[in-house]
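If you are new to this repository, start here. Below is one unmodified record pulled from the training split, so you can see the exact layout before writing a loader.
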Amino acid sequence: CGPPRSLSLSGRRIPAALWAQRGLRKLYLSGTGLREVPAELAALRHLRTLALDGNELMEVPEALCRLPRLAYLYLGRNGLQGLPPAFARLQSLRCLWLEGNFLARFPRALLRLPDLRSLQLGDNRLARLPAGLPRMEGLRGLWLYGNRFEEFPAVLLRMVHLRVLDLDRNRIARFPDLACLSSLRLLSYDHNPVRQPPCVGDAVQLVGDGAQEFMEARQERLQSLQRQEEEEEEEGTEAPPIPVLLLELG
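And here is the target side for that same chain:
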């Protein structure tokens, strides 16, 4: 057998020999009590998945920013207050989990990751989003539940490629018309002080207070429109009047 491609040490002590496993593709170190990561991590240049969630990291180690193939990174439930500028080197990153940290500002380094597809920022301390957010053109899923938004971030109206948007457990009392988000397929707005469901496109699944009634009414409306179109189509295919038939037979 060759060297392992995937290794899980979650909840266990980390042996010094780990950093010699240069061929690793996946490494899971969740809940190992880590307070810092040794510089030797940078030697694992083939890593595509790295799980460091549920530890005691107060900052992102510089060595982590030197993993050129890293695509999936779990940093949730640590003590992070920000990301270093060098984080923008992770140009292969596709999915990033940062939930349950202490982020009060959106990390600027993320704006330099245009191919990031999924960003999990739930249960932090965010109250606003940067105007440059649309530069993240690859973003398809954005989780912002459990933050401190008191208004719907207007910049989200320019995120036309978003498919999933989660704003649960914030303080948003009013949502704008979101029909312009043509790619959106799921909007979660539960536990916000809104009085009625947000206005969204017909393809959007809603999760929140009043969402079930809203979607049932929408379904009835769509079915009524479909029946109407079918009836109009049937009327258009009925037999032509006699004079036309006589002309055709003549």
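Two things worth knowing about this chain: Residues 211-236 form the longest helix (26 residues). The two ends are 86 Å apart (CA to CA).
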